[in-house]
Write a structure and sequence with these properties.
With 861 residues, this protein is mostly beta strands. The protein contains ten helices and 56 strands. The chain folds into four domains: 82 residues, Phosphorylase Kinase, domain 1; 214 residues, Transferase(Phosphotransferase) domain 1 (Transferase(Phosphotransferase), domain 1), CATH 1.10.510.10; 178 residues, TolB, C-terminal domain (Neuraminidase, 6 Propeller), CATH 2.120.10.30; 200 residues, 6 Propeller (Neuraminidase). Helices cover 12% and strands 42% of the residues. The strands form 13 sheets. Strands 17-18-19-20-21-22-23 form a seven-stranded antiparallel β-sheet, with no helix packed on it. The protein has a six-stranded antiparallel β-sheet with strand order 1-2-3-4-6-5, with helices on one face. A hairpin with a 5-residue loop joins strand 14 and strand 15. It is globular. It starts with 7 loop residues before the first strand and ends with a strand.
């Protein structure tokens, strides 16, 4: 059906047509409820006469709406109008990939950029059990700022199994019926052509066909008819990509692996595919150079689940004295053997450490898989099967050349850091023998006779060799203790700030003389000696490029990059034969909300960096921050699509729901009021140049409470008048937020809860005056919110889920369990915080997952 401008469908007013195809007509429309432009897709009338098909689409639409990934087109709404179904979609500015390819192939660098984004969107969808089934250039949209978005998840699955055999397209139209036939059939997987069982690996085949076309400017499977193209998909290999196009050999191998006829020989997940693409380095994608490489052996292509991807490595030297590869002019280039990656693990969770056994074919690692406690596992090089060892809550620290295992029993992690009881055991089967308490790190000496250790004593990390003799100590902490191959020195990472992952690569001899080889590294994730003992290999970022990758530093502090394309990795171990254990790490954050009257846990996260501190009391609105760079979004229960309000970090919603309180985290913070509906943002004055870390509206909506202070000074609590902008302190210096990272206010706003400098949790009058203890609060507990009558307080304790939240009567001390809150995604849960709405009826749970995959890497030089 065609709609004229001005026609209303629910709250959507048609503005103008955007396009039409076999799956309906698309219009620009105005959402009068939320005052935004949307794309309104009116689906074919035949849908209304097929209840099963309609119900299936609605389920798919709901699943995609819950996905909310930046590389997947968002579905805002779904309904029917005069018996005709419609979908309300995100409105995009740009063009389809098909339109971009009409002018020829893409530059390899741009093709890789789009491919990584599409793989990310597929990975997120596949994780939720959603398969597209009709990925093609028409169903990939590229916005004006080069963000790739996959279109028509959910809609594509409603098309016939072989849409190419109809005379209509499934989604976006092309010019002719013949073009529609040929344009669709070229992206079907062999199993789709055969009408066999289809799973997520069919999307990866289609992805390969799309990537091939981006690079070659022509379809992967040619033919003058649908039958010829189907035959090519089943029996033929695409032509080689043009060598003159400067396409890295590693990228072509990725394409061909996606296009394997047998699904078992393709990448087994979009996550692995994305990792392989990220290993095609920017340095290799140049207009004038192409690394030479042989075609992968057939045995490699048949590895199935085990991931083997080739990284294109060009070792370059900079004119700059620092020597890091990421910046500066290219002054030298030499090609080196291309490393291969073999995947050793396939579970979901967090890998904490991995070490080669004495023979370098045995690998022992410690991991918390699938929400289970930390434990030890054994695997073999070249195998993806792991055997759990019969040692509970154990963490691997070191393995001697004779096969003696040093482990930590009862190891407890708090974020990055952990401690436990040092024990030793033989890989031949003897049980662990406890040796020493509160040990963080340990490494065997060259002859395996004793251990160098790091343990926490009186608030300081101490490096001891042998145990009891202190070589070095710090108020910060130490990681990655490693004896040199000659046994004369100990390398370690010295972190000056406790809990901060930045630090220095340091050496100390057995007499206690210390020197730093490399200072000021960011996000250090593992270190070990090179096979020859002339370098230290480590995974870290530098202040210049801030990209975590594998690097090396020699004893004269000269540096080089080992794997410029392998980003977000952690170095676990380096074997004597040069093989390396690397963990590929991905962090994902979640926001989940539950209310007192609704046991349903709702997921309000929409990006991999979603965090939230506040929801309204009725749970209808949640303020979510997408970090890096920080932007504030509003998510409504009635419409879960994120609506961007502005910059900064979201802290609170005003009592009338009209304003969001945001803080842009700068040296002197910008305090912003962002409208949740029509209106302009307002910036409050900050004459004292406060750096603000937390903020809340007072109940009158005319004042806010801030926690912060001038840069470098101790924090205090402040009250700011919104109209006049005046700010006054009301607490002593040195207070901080409670563990929920939020400011808890009394219902009438006369008191705010902070942690005092002496560690006590106190109630500070917002008008000023002496603070007072909170009655019946037990050690280790912290409050979340008051009940509206101020007679009871919601409290909890700990730093990881499950959270047990109790309601405490501040008069009698009587306790009542409100509920226990656990993370819906149990695998790899690390950091977790909870916060409650002002009157305690809605709980917001923000937590992060660290998901790891262990790889064996061969060929690094």
């Amino acid at each position: 059906m065609s709609l004229a401008a001005g026609v209303r469908i629910a709250s959507y007013e048609v503005v103008s047509p955007l396009g039409a195809g076999g799956m309906g007509e698309v219009y620009r429309a105005r959402d009068r409820k939320l005052n935004r432009d949307v794309a309104l897709k009116v689906l074919p009338a035949a849908f209304a006469s097929d209840p099963e098909r309609l119900a299936r689409f609605e389920r798919e639409a709901q699943a995609v709406a819950a996905l909310s990934h930046p590389n997947v087109l968002a579905i805002h709404d779904f309904g029917t109008f005069d018996g005709v179904p419609y979908a309300v979609l995100e409105l995009l500015d740009g063009s389809t990939l098909r339109e971009r390819l009409d002018s020829g192939p893409l530059a390899p660098r741009r093709a890789i950029e789009y491919a990584i984004q599409v793989a990310s969107g597929l990975a997120a969808a596949h994780d939720k059990g959603i398969v597209h089934r009709d990925l093609k250039p028409e169903n990939i949209f590229v916005t004006a700022d080069h963000q790739a978005k996959i279109l028509d998840f959910g809609i594509a699955k409603l098309a016939p199994l072989h849409p190419a055999l109809t005379e209509a397209t499934v989604t976006t139209p092309v010019n002719t019926a013949a073009g529609a036939v040929l344009g669709t059939i070229g992206y079907l997987s062999p199993e789709q052509v055969r009408s066999s069982v289809v799973d997520h690996r069919s999307d990866l085949f289609a992805f390969g066909a799309v990537l091939y076309e981006m690079l070659a400017g022509r379809p992967a499977f040619a033919g003058d008819s649908a039958v010829e193209r189907m035959n090519a998909i089943l029996k033929e290999e695409p032509r080689s990509l043009d060598p003159a196009a400067t396409i890295p050999p590693a990228l072509e191998r990725i394409v061909r692996r996606c296009l394997e006829k047998n699904p078992a020989n393709r990448f087994q997940s979009a996550h692995d595919l994305r990792f392989a693409l990220e290993n095609v380095t920017a340095a290799a994608v140049t207009d004038s150079h192409r690394a030479a490489a042989d075609d992968p052996a057939p045995s490699v292509r048949r590895r199935g689940v085990a991931l083997r991807v080739a990284a294109v490595i060009l070792l370059v030297a900079l004119a700059a004295a620092a020597g890091f590869v990421s910046r500066g002019s290219l002054t030298a280039r030499r090609s080196i053997a291309m490393p291969t990656f073999t995947r050793l693990t396939d579970q979901r969770g967090t890998l904490r450490a991995a070490r080669f056994g004495g023979d370098t074919t045995t690998v022992i690692y410690s991991a918390a898989w699938d929400g289970q406690p930390l434990r030890l596992y054994l695997t073999r090089a070249g195998s993806s099967a792991s055997t759990p060892l019969d040692v509970a809550s154990a963490h691997v620290l070191s393995i001697s050349r004779s096969g003696e295992l040093a482990m930590s029993l009862g190891h407890r992690f708090d974020g990055w850091l952990g401690t436990g009881t040092l024990a030793r055991a033989s890989l031949l089967g003897t049980g662990p023998r406890p040796l020493l308490e509160d040990v963080r790190e340990a490494d065997w000496s060259l002859d395996g006779s004793a251990l160098a250790i790091v343990r926490r004593v009186d608030g300081r990390d101490r490096l001891e060799w042998p145990a009891g003799k202190v070589l070095y100590q710090t108020n910060g902490f130490m990681t990655d203790v490693r004896f040199s191959p000659d046994g004369g020195r100990i390398a370690f990472v010295d972190h000056p700030a406790y809990g901060d992952n930045d630090g220095h690569v340091s050496l100390i001899d057995t007499d206690g003389r210390k020197r730093d080889l490399l200072r000021g590294l960011n996000s250090i994730h593992g270190m070990a000696w090179s096979p020859r003992g002339d370098e230290l290999w480590f995974a870290a970022a530098t202040p210049e490029d801030r990209v975590v990758t594998l690097r090396a530093v020699d004893l004269s502090s000269q540096t080089r990059v080992l794997l410029p394309g392998a980003i977000d990795v952690a170095l676990m171990d380096v074997g004597r034969d040069g093989r390396v254990l690397l963990s590929r790490e991905s962090g994902v954050r979640h926001v989940e909300v539950t209310t007192a009257n609704d046991p349903t846990v709702r997921d309000y996260s929409f990006s991999e960096n979603s965090v939230a501190r506040m929801a309204t009391d009725d749970g209808s609105m949640v303020l979510v921050t997408s970090q890096g760079p920080s932007s504030v979004y509003l998510r409504r229960r009635a419409d879960p699509t994120p609506f961007r309000l502005g910059e900064g970090e979201g802290h609170d919603i005003s009592p009338d729901g009209r304003w969001a309180l945001s803080v842009a985290p700068e040296a002197s913070s910008r305090i912003l009021l962002l409208p949740t509906g029509p209106g302009d943002a307002k910036e409050l004055p900050n004459p004292q140049r406060l750096s603000v870390t937390a903020a809340r509206f007072l109940p009158d909506g005319r004042r806010i409470v801030l926690l912060g202070g001038p840069a470098g000074d101790a924090w205090r609590g402040y009250v700011q008048e919104i109209d006049s902008g005046t700010i006054r302190p009301f607490t002593v210096a040195g207070v901080t937020f409670i563990q929920s990272r939020n400011i808890v206010l009394t219902p009438d706003g006369t008191g705010a809860v902070f942690t005092a400098p002496d560690g006590r949790v106190l109630l500070f009058p917002t008008a000023g005056g002496e603070p007072r203890p909170i009655p019946h609060l037990q050690p280790g507990e912290f409050p979340l919110a008051w009940t509206p009558d101020a007679r009871q307080l919601y409290v909890t304790r700990g730093s990881t889920p499950p959270w047990r939240i109790e309601r405490v009567d501040v008069g009698s001390g009587q306790r009542t369990l409100w509920k226990e809150v656990a993370a819906s995604q149990s695998a790899g849960v690390r950091l977790s915080i909870v916060a409650m709405s002002p009157r305690g009826s809605t709980l917001v749970h923000s937590y992060s997952q660290l998901l790891s995959t262990l790889y064996l890497v061969e060929g690094i030089q």
